[in-house]
Every structure is written in structure tokens, then in C-alpha cells.
Amino acid sequence: SNTQGWQWAAGCGADAAPYFRIFNPITQGEKFDGRGEYAKRWIPQLESLPSKWIFRPWEAPAEILETHGVDLGGNYPEPCIDHSEGRTRALAALATLKTP
């Protein structure tokens, strides 16, 4: 048994990470991959997009997207959820699972 080590780190132990810790993929990308190198390597549609827009292409001006071949809703999807709204809904749902 290793509930204090790898199971905790993997989030599968009896005392796994708290439910309220919901990561924001945009913030994580900006914080740990500021130039978007990892994202550009694995998402070819964003490869030539300036780093400023790599984690938020839907906020880029239309001319930037067009210049770099990004077609939102075409070759690259529109956001499927607003992260802030999704986080709020997830926390509300998870709070119902708390034991009294």
C-alpha cells in the first residue's frame, strides 16, 4: 500500500487531491508553456499562430487568424465551454457529494 505516495500524486488514493482543485487549461498553458511550444507541437493548426494567442485563439483578431490559417469552427474548434462557468457548475455538483 502506498496511499501517501504515488496514489496521492495520481489522484486515486483514499485521500486524493481535493475536489475543489479544478485546473484552468488556459492558465496552466500560459504559466508553464508561455511560448506555446508544446501546444504548437501537438496542434498543427496553431503552429504559426503568435504565442500571444496560442491558448486563446478565439480571442485573436480575425485578420490574425486568417493570416495564420486558423478557421474557428473549421480546422480548429470553437470553445466547447466557458471555463469559468464550467468550474462553477462542477463545484456545485461536487459539493452535493460531500458527506455531512
Q: Any chance you could write out the topology, listing elements then pairs?
A:
Elements: H1 6-10, H2 25-32, H3 37-42, H4 62-67, H5 83-95
Give an account of the 3D structure.
By secondary structure, the protein is mainly alpha-helical. It has a single domain (22-95), classed as DNA Cyclobutane Dipyrimidine Photolyase, subunit A, domain 3 (Orthogonal Bundle), CATH 1.10.579.10. The chain contains five helices and no strands. The chain has helices at residues 6-10, 25-32, 37-42, 62-67, 83-95. The longest helix has 13 residues, at 83-95. The chain is elongated, with a radius of gyration of 18 Å. The model has no long low-confidence stretch (mean pLDDT 87).
Q: Which architecture name does CATH use?
A: Orthogonal Bundle
Find the CATH superfamily. DNA Cyclobutane Dipyrimidine Photolyase, subunit A, domain 3
Per DSSP, the total helix count is 5
Rounded radius of gyration (Å)? 18 Å
